[in-house]
């Protein structure tokens, strides 16, 4: 959660040189999970084999990302964005009072969202698997939990997109582009590591 | 750093990451298969089951190894990047130092910098929105202040500084 710059003073300066923050593995996993969620939520039949395969693929991608959080590059590691609800609230409150902090890794609110999305996807994978086993097939609470998690996932996706758009606008760091080419424009003097 | 080498490195990292992701998904399939077999009727002592379990463990180990390899490639790339930027920053300081010594005016500094970037006089005039006669006059002033006769000699001032700077004497 490397904090690099503050306030609106940065807005008048010329665009700083980009720093590579998201490595290719982070980006592949991100867009892979996004595509899997989009496919399973929209055009894939709920009880089809494709639905299962895509769901397990999303789970696999999340597991890869979790391993990468332990052994990966500095900005991808959990230590760069520890889950900290207090910091997340402070970060959001900062936006309201015009203090737009920039981060090389996830900002504290974005970090919470990442952990939330991963947990939700894993939960959907587990309940989805349970629905295919003889022991839990047709059991109502399992199905309801799977659907409840799906609803929560959709809410989370909307919040995630909203957060990305808001943060990009106020900090002038184009986050969507950063997740495509891996770079965030941040002043050289403010790079910490 | 050489842009070609950088591009190759970057492509290598992307390829490695893609292989890791694909292998991981495959590994997950095998591990799930082994776990399901064990849960049903399989016993590890069974040769087939034992081999399958060992293969899965080897696969997962291989993926972890590839992940560490990918991290190494990426950190080497970012170290090279940092070193290049540092060198670039130092060069800029050297150039600024000379310009200050020669007491160039701000517009002469701009023109001199553009000259060092290998831009022709006409193009400099166009970029700065001045007449090409003005640029010629500014060049003459720069050469006079630097005590050189023309562009090639101006370059050589900085080349000498660079070659002397890395500690290897030129014979």
Automatic annotation (TrEMBL), chain A:
The chain crosses the membrane at residues 109-129, 149-170. Its main location: membrane. InterPro entries: Cyt_b561_bac/Ni-Hgenase, Di-haem_cyt_TM, Hydrogenase_cytochrome. One of its GO terms (cellular component) is plasma membrane. GO terms for molecular function: electron transfer activity; heme binding. It is a multi-pass membrane protein. Keywords: Cell membrane, Membrane, Transmembrane, Transmembrane helix. It is found in: Cell membrane. Residues 21-182 form the Cytochrome b561 bacterial/Ni-hydrogenase domain. GO terms for biological process: respiratory electron transport chain. This is Cytochrome B. It comes from Maritimibacter harenae.
């Amino acid at each position: 959660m490397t904090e690099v710059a503050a306030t609106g003073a940065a807005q008048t300066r010329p665009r700083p040189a980009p720093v590579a923050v998201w490595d290719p593995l982070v980006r592949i996993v991100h867009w892979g999970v996004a595509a899997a969620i989009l496919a399973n939520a929209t055009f894939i039949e709920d009880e089809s084999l494709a639905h299962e395969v895509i769901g397990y693929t999303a789970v696999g991608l999340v597991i890869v990302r979790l391993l990468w959080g332990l052994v990966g590059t500095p900005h991808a590691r959990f230590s760069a964005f520890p889950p900290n609800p207090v910091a997340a609230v402070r970060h959001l409150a900062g936006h309201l009072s015009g203090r737009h902090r920039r981060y090389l890794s996830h900002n504290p609110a974005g970090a919470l969202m990442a952990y939330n999305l991963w947990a939700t996807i894993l939960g959907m994978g587990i309940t989805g698997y349970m629905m295919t086993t003889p022991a839990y097939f047709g059991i109502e609470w399992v199905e309801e939990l799977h659907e409840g998690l799906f609803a929560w996932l959709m809410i989370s996706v909307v919040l995630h997109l909203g957060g990305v758009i808001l943060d990009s606008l106020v900090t002038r760091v184009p986050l969507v582009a950063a997740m495509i080419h891996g770079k965030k424009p941040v002043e050289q003097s403010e790079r910490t590591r | 750093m050489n842009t070609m080498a950088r591009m190759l490195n970057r492509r290598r990292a992307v390829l490695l990451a893609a292989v890791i992701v694909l292998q991981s998904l495959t590994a997950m399939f095998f591990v799930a298969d082994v776990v399901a077999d064990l849960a049903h009727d399989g016993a590890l002592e069974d040769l087939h089951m034992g081999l399958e379990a060992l293969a899965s463990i080897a696969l997962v180990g291989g993926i972890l190894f590839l992940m560490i390899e990918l991290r190494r490639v990426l950190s080497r790339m970012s170290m090279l990047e940092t070193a290049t930027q540092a060198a670039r920053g130092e060069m800029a300081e050297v150039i600024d130092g000379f310009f200050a010594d020669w007491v160039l005016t701000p517009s002469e500094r701009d023109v001199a910098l553009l000259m060092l970037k290998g831009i022709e006089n006409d193009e400099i005039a166009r970029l700065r929105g001045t007449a090409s006669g003005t640029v010629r006059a500014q060049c003459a002033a720069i050469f006079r202040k630097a005590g050189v006769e023309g562009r090639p000699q101006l370059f050589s001032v900085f080349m000498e500084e660079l070659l002397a700077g890395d500690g290897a004497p030129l014979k």
